[in-house]
Design brief:
Length: 424
């Protein structure tokens, strides 16, 4: 087919594409210019113009231009696609777009060019932002309303109960209204408890805190008993004396504290340590080697082309692969080695009392175990990983310097074709 016909066909396909596309060129002045865009690009709430070439700063605002300049320069430097999310103003609201900068060369012009693919992620972003707001509110509610709250009138009948009380005792808010306090206490304790409350109401004390009182047994709607701690206080409202009780079910405390401790150090998907806890462990290990003149190695592992697997097979398969990868690593590492998920498809392995050359041997064991036989490869969808290693000794000053070296080694492994091991 003649070149003119090929070119015409390409232009037709380019213009007909449903994805918003633009071709960006870095000219000799090192500025990025928009030299062409398809019809779908006009969906973006920007000014694409028609007088090409034009500086991208005439299309996007200064903040957006700076972000695009950075990601496109990075793409040209690495030779791999890079992406950034931009918030674009439109008449009604913000729109969110993912910009993917894919470098390519134009042999006819001799200038570096980038295919900018633009995807409208506004709906997903709004869902994510809304989910974050909901989670934030839920956290505030859990923090402020973990304990039950009751307000009693002067006759010790319930005037208010929050949802924590309703969950704790099994009554609805309507059932709780005007309920006598004694209905929430087992019969055998009611006489003694009434005496205690009358004594408190007649005293000069304004409050009795949980730590000042012995545990109390409470009675649920279903007849079961639960141990609780109670803080009580009294106040006046419109000339009437009222009593407030803060109730804490201590049977849930241990389990909640256990969950909170787990959340502080464990990755919820894989069950291994999370980034925060790995940072703490690395900090302690660095202090140890500085004090005793010892050494350890850090291995950063990044799963190759994992985004493609997610995009092709779905995130459920991706999650299964992450867990399978963790199992493969655990099969060949020592009990003293500390393994954690650094984020996404990136993992970190801390190897105490291990020099870099021995860490390479450990990495090769992981690599071989991951590759396995054909059946294993099929189960893992051909998954491979790249490995960056850095040895740490007494001269190392900071965690940041360790991570810089191990990141550089990992980047080198990626640049050298992936599925390999490099150290710094």
């Amino acid at each position: 087919m003649p070149n003119d016909q090929l070119k015409s066909n390409f232009v037709d396909v380019f213009d007909a594409a449903s994805t918003s596309l633009a071709i960006i060129e870095q000219q000799p002045d090192d500025q990025f210019y928009l030299i062409n865009s398809n019809h779908a690009f006009n969906r973006l709430p920007v000014n694409p113009g028609t007088d090409w070439p034009c500086l991208i700063s005439t299309v996007f605002d200064s903040v957006q231009t700076a972000l695009l300049d950075s990601v496109m320069a990075k793409a040209l430097q690495s030779g791999f696609p890079e992406e950034v999310e931009l918030a674009l103003d439109c008449e009604e609201d913000l729109q969110w777009w993912r910009m993917v900068a894919s470098p390519f060369s134009d042999v006819t012009q001799g200038n570096a060019r980038i295919l900018l693919s633009c995807y409208d992620i506004t709906v997903k972003k709004r869902l994510d932002l809304n989910r974050e707001r909901v989670l934030s509110r839920m956290e505030q509610i859990v923090d402020s309303a973990y304990d039950g709250m009751l307000i009693f009138d002067r006759d010790l009948r319930v005037e208010y109960s929050n949802s924590a009380v309703e969950r704790m005792f099994g009554y609805s808010s309507d059932e709780m209204l005007l309920m006598p306090l004694e209905d929430l206490i087992p019969a055998r304790f009611r006489g003694r408890h009434q005496e205690y409350v009358k004594s408190f109401l007649g005293s000069s004390h304004r409050a009795k805190l949980m730590e000042q009182r012995a545990p109390v047994t409470a009675l649920r709607k279903d007849g079961t008993e639960i141990p609780v701690e109670i803080s009580i206080s009294k106040f006046e409202m419109e000339g009437l004396q009222m009593v407030t009780a803060i109730v804490r079910d201590t049977t849930q405390r241990a389990e909640m504290m256990k969950e909170l401790r787990r959340a502080a150090y464990e990755d919820p998907l894989t069950g291994i340590y999370n980034r925060r806890h790995m940072s703490r462990i690395m900090h302690r290990e660095l202090q140890r080697v500085q004090r005793f003149d010892r050494y350890f190695s850090v291995m950063m592992i990044d799963l190759d082309h994992f985004k493609k697997i997610n995009d092709t097979y779905g995130h459920a398969i991706g999650d299964e692969l992450l867990m399978a990868f963790v199992a493969k690593v655990k099969q060949v590492t020592r009990s003293v080695d500390v393994f954690g998920r650094w984020g996404g498809e990136e993992f970190i392995l801390l190897l105490p009392e291990t020099r870099a050359e021995d860490a390479e041997v450990a990495a090769e064991k992981i690599r071989s175990n991951l590759r396995g036989d054909k059946e294993s490869q099929d189960e893992l969808y051909g998954l491979t990983a790249s490995y960056g290693i850095a040895q740490v000794d007494q001269q190392e000053q900071t965690i940041e310097s360790i991570l810089e070296r191990v990141d550089a080694a990992l980047y080198q492994a990626k640049s050298d074709g992936r599925d390999c091991i490099r150290r710094r």
